[in-house]
Amino acid sequence: MTTATQNLLPGTDLALEALPKVSLHDHLDGGLRPATIVELAAEIGYELPAGATDAESLGEWFATQANSGSLVQYLTTFDVTIAVMQTRDALVRVAREFVEDLAADGVVWGEIRWAPEQHLQQGLSLDEAVEAVQQGLDEGVEAARGAGTSLRVGQLVSAMRHADRGLEIAQLALRHRDTGTVGFDIAGAEAGFPPSRMRDAFELLADEFFPVTIHAGEADGIESIRGALRDGHALRLGHGVRLLEDITLVDEGEMTRASLGRIAEWVKDRGIALETSPSSNLQTGAIAAWGDAMEDHPLDLFTQLGFRVTVNTDNRLMSATTLSRELRLVAETFDYDLDDILALQLNAAQAAFLPVEDREALMDTIIAGFEEHA
Q: What cofactors does the UniProt entry give for this protein (predicted)?
């Protein structure tokens, strides 16, 4: 979703959109343009929510519905986006526009996650769905480069936690690993659907040395994170904010000491990235145990303790946001400067599902871009 409003780094006239950025946690079905939904819905005769028949009112509806404090309620908004993403042409268009919007936001590497199994209602096969999205991504990259913007993207193929198709979707991801798919994820309702339900899928992926990120520590607690690491062999944690449950803070006069449990220590010591999504984490109640405002988000504490923290959008449509906006909100809340924003981007580049040489080149690109605006 594009925006004409620039997000300035607090205390400066620097637009964050101008800085090279990395997006690791961004859902395809959560990043449609409202105008596109209106047009696609009209083409298939899909009835939009009452009162949300134009792009502006529909965008407002998504933001209002998503701001529920519950992941389960938040996920109901996807009924609308998924409904209009059931044909090849629709998937190509949505994917193409998604990349165009990333380019407009200054993203130079983007990983785009989605669940192909949710897009088969009009007869597409799993492979056809993946191929359609890849075509759209390729077209978006080509269009961006034609406009003078260079970026790369990759698919993260997700399996829905409740659907028991994990092995099938893992095999799908592996079939497309050389044509644009860079990793595997599981998504959907977290509580009650642990990674152990898909252990066979994760064992296959481990055998094939294929990268995995898992939604964990968002709508469920530390045991969910344990399962992501142990059963899912996760290299990154989708959100992961409830890792704070494994950290004890003790006030010692003017100082506060942090004591890390074994899981938190493991995540920190091995540089397992936390894919935080500040606005979304507030909307879904992921940090409700600690508060309901941005200053209550644990990402700054994680940063101070040395965790590999990244900032992401999760769902740009539902949170009415961009990566630049999320970084502005974080900078405003925690008094971050340009060096802090750079550190977050280097964290994300280091955690990208890319070969090490490509990650190093990506970090060089980011550093050069930030130096240009320093």
A: Zn(2+)
Q: What is the C-alpha to C-alpha distance for residues 117 and 26, in angstroms, rounded to an integer? A: 18
Identify the helix (H) or strand (E) that includes residue 1.
none
* pLDDT digit string, tens, across residues 259-270: 999 999 999 999
**From CA 229, how far away is CA 198, in angstroms rounded?**
13
In this structure, what are the phi and psi dihedrals at residue 118, rounded to the nearest 5 degrees? -90, 5
| CA–CA separation, 296 and 216 (whole Å) | 19
Q: What's the whole-model pTM score?
A: 0.96
R_g over Cα of the chain: 19
Q: Token digits for 213?
A: 């990120």
The whole-angstrom separation of Cα 327 and Cα 36 is 26
Q: Quick one: tokens of 37? A: 């939904």
Beta carbons of 321 and 279 less than 8 angstroms apart: yes
- The CATH superfamily label for domain 19-357 reads Metal-dependent hydrolases (3.20.20.140)
Is-contact 172 126, C-beta < 8 A?
yes
What is the dihedral angle through the alpha carbons of 269, 153, 120, 280, rounded to the nearest 10 degrees?
Answer: 50
- The one-letter amino acid code at 326 reads E
Residue 371 a catalytic site member: no
Separation of first and last alpha carbons in the chain = 28
- Residues 6 or more apart in contact with residue 184 via CB below 8 angstroms: 156, 157, 158, 159, 169, 170, 173, 201, 205, 210, 211, 212, 213
Query: Which of 218, 223, 265, 295 is labelled catalytic?
Result: 218
**Distance (Å, whole) CA 328 – CA 323:** 9
CA–CA separation, 185 and 214 (whole Å): 5
> In the structure, what pLDDT confidence band is assigned to residue 277 with cuts at 50, 70 and 90?
very high
Residue 196 and residue 352: Cα distance in Å, rounded? 25
The answer to whether 169 touches 155, Cβ cutoff 8 Å, is no
3-state helix vs strand vs coil in the chain, percent to 5: 50, 15, 35
Cα–Cα distance measured from residue 34 to residue 53, given in angstroms and rounded to the nearest whole number = 10
